[in-house]
Recover the amino acids of this structure.
């Protein structure tokens, strides 16, 4: 029996040591490829964002055609969740447990990512560069496996609040917002930015993602006598609100949140004339802006679009967004070298220094650190002139060093 | 299908009592085979498949509940998703805010949903067929919106919904007396998923046993009599009011339990999980499985879990259209559901003998 016991003890010790050595988890990686998952709304109310996932898919195809990253091709698996949180849970589990991806990249949406936030962190799977600007993605202390990408919503909302206080001190403000985490994140940031001036808000209208239109909300905001309109909506509803306000001849100073500034997907359907005068802040080059027409990064992007995604919309900020996000991911994979363990991928994602990603506004770079999980933190005000977005003012940044 | 097995001479199953139809032995054998497969699942399948099978099982429980109302008692409901929602929220609130074990919440789900269903059964008494379908439709559409109402936000979590099992970081706690990890050879992350499966399977078996007995009982016969000929049933002294409201109440209770299990399995509830589409899915599952035939529920559940996924694999943009095509094919091949298909096959067996 002693023998068996010793053998057992040895086995146990060996297992323990193996356990210690295997603190590095390598999943979804072979010498020839790395599996990356994503979850996007290819169907449903937020399907306009589906273009982002499509662009990333094409971008990785291009990378693979060029031999991949460090000799590995990217096996990109993107599923549709229709912007429904329970579907997101199912798809995330499918990616992690069945497809065994190394990481999930650019899952889109605030309610959808919220549904898998804990799951990803419990499983210790990198949940990288989520396509949403909620403030909760930059919380490395409690959620060390989740990282945002775009500037967060409260920061953006505070820029509008400051602009209103400086330039429109007597404003009567109406707000239309999507009734969920994303909408409330903006709303709370905006009120915080206004401070005492929050009493100037005369109308606050929520809508649900499942609503067919926001026409009635726009009509009652006009009736409230507001002369400033803060429009916190996703693309479909943004287009409806802009169009309706124009139709009923309500012409407030109109602030549009950055998530819906795509000229191709939002402003064109809403009507370019109706969109004239919209104010937003941006961090991306607008692909339709003539001042960037000859910018080398735009030229490169157009070449990519022509060759790899000819059906893609070259006037849409979403295709440019997908391209920029994809470049960030490529950088992290390159920086990870041959150690593609989940731990190292996360470590490298939290260690980006002054990375210039194409199609961001000139001067913006990406910086992250183990305590800073907010990659892009600078923005600039811009106004729509009927054809494209025109920048004004300086770069406004909260970039931590 | 075992039903096409012609090597067994029909004479061997020639019943002594003429009441038993040919192929009656197929039922128990089929059920035993199904039970064996379901028990084997956690031993051989990986986490994600177990999670999906759990989903099939709680859909199957809901479909059995709906079947009691629609198949046995003949009342239409387009709103059973609402009872799933109530059950799920009862479990979510009790687990998350009162620290209860999710298993202990299931009887409460049943009770709460029974009350809701029983009460809804009263207006349903005045509505027949298509009008009742419309009334229940309203229930399905209203429920997600009511859950989002801001006065209820303190309990329901509003649009954001509720995440369950916070103290254990989103994994259902596994009891110490049941060796989930050792038995199924899984790690601590997967243990919760497997445990919920075990519980769901046990509940599904219990619900099946209870409902088959109910259907065979005096109550079941009364319910069927009301479905087949309400006037004759009344003249025989069947209290239609009582049985119809009871059918509604029991049906809702069963569906509520399924909702509680769904919440424990998904570990997250939100109003948008319980849209009108869920109610329609249950009805699709009912029709596919076979109206009035309880074992069909498992086929119906599998249909509504797997077919949309296959449809998505064929085409991301047209997944809905492909689902529709599959559904039409299914109805063309088996107009009375899988239950009808099996009955037809059993009938042929009898004729050939």
């Amino acid at each position: 029996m002693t023998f068996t016991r010793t053998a057992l003890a040895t086995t146990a010790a060996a297992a323990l040591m193996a356990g210690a050595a295997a603190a590095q988890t390598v999943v979804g990686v072979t010498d020839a490829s790395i599996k990356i998952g994503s979850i996007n709304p290819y169907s449903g109310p937020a399907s306009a964002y589906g273009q982002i996932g499509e662009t990333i898919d094409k971008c990785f195809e291009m990378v693979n055609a060029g031999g991949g990253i460090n000799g590995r091709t990217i096996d990109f698996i993107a599923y549709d969740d229709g912007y429904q949180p329970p579907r997101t849970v199912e798809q995330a589990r499918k990616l992690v447990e069945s497809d065994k991806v190394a990481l999930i990249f650019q899952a889109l949406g605030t309610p959808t990512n919220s549904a898998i936030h804990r799951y990803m962190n419990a499983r210790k799977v990198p949940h990288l560069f989520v396509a949403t600007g909620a403030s909760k993605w930059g919380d490395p202390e409690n959620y060390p496996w989740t990282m945002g990408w775009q500037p967060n919503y409260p920061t953006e909302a505070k820029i509008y609040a400051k602009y209103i206080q400086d330039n429109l001190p007597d404003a009567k403000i109406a707000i239309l917002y999507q009734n969920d985490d994303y909408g409330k994140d903006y709303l709370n940031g905006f009120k915080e930015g206004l401070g005492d001036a929050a009493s100037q808000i005369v109308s606050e209208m929520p809508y649900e993602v499942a609503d067919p239109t926001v026409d009635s909300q726009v009509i009652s905001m006009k009736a409230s006598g507001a002369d400033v309109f803060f429009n916190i909506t996703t693309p479909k509803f943004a287009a409806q609100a802009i169009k309706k306000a124009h139709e009923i001849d309500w012409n407030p100073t109109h602030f549009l949140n950055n998530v819906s500034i795509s000229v191709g997907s939002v402003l064109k359907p809403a009507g370019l004339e109706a969109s004239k005068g919209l104010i937003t802040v941006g961090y991306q080059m607008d692909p339709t802006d003539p001042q960037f027409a000859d910018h080398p990064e735009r030229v490169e992007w157009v070449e990519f679009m022509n060759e790899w995604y000819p059906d893609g919309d070259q006037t849409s900020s979403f295709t440019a967004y997908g391209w920029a996000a994809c470049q960030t991911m490529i950088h992290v994979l390159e920086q990870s070298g041959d150690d593609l363990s989940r731990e190292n991928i996360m470590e490298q994602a939290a260690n980006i220094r002054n990375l210039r990603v194409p199609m961001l506004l000139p001067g913006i770079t990406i910086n992250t650190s183990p305590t800073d999980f907010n990659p892009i933190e600078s923005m600039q005000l811009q106004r729509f002139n009927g054809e494209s977005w025109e920048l004004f003012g300086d770069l406004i940044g909260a970039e931590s060093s | 299908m075992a039903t096409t097995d012609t090597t067994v001479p029909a004479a061997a199953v020639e019943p002594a009592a003429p009441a038993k139809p040919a192929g009656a032995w197929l039922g128990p054998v089929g059920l035993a085979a199904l039970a064996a497969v379901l028990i084997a699942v956690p031993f051989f399948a990986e986490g994600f498949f177990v999670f999906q099978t759990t989903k099939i099982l709680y859909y199957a429980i809901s479909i059995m509940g709906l079947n009691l109302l629609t198949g046995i008692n003949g009342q239409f409901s387009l709103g059973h998703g609402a009872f799933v929602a109530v059950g799920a929220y009862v479990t979510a609130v009790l687990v998350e805010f009162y620290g209860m074990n999710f298993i202990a919440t299931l009887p409460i789900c049943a009770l709460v949903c029974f009350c809701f269903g029983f009460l809804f059964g009263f207006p349903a008494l005045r509505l027949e067929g298509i009008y009742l379908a419309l009334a229940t439709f309203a229930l399905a559409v209203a429920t997600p919106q009511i859950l989002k109402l801001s006065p209820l936000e303190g309990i329901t979590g509003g649009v954001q919904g509720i995440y369950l099992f916070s103290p254990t970081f989103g994994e259902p706690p596994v009891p110490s007396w049941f060796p989930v990890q050792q038995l199924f050879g899984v790690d601590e992350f997967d243990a919760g998923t497997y445990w919920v499966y075990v519980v769901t399977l046990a509940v599904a078996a219990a619900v099946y046993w209870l409902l088959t007995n109910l259907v065979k009982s005096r109550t079941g016969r009364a319910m069927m009599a009301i479905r087949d000929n309400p006037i004759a049933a009344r003249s025989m002294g069947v209290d239609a009011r009582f049985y119809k409201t009871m059918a509604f109440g029991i049906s809702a209770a069963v569906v509520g339990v399924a909702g509680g299990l769904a919440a424990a399995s998904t570990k997250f509830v939100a109003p948008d999980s319980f849209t009108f589409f869920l109610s329609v899915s249950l009805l699709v599952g009912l029709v596919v499985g076979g109206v009035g035939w309880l074992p069909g529920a498992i086929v119906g559940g599998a249909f509504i879990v797997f077919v949309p996924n296959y449809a998505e694999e064929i085409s991301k943009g047209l997944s809905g259209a492909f689902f529709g095509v599959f559904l039409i094919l299914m109805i063309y091949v088996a107009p009375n559901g899988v239950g009808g298909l099996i009955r037809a096959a059993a009938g042929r067996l009898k004729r050939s003998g």
Summary: Residues 1-6, 13-22 of chain A have pLDDT under 50 and may be disordered.
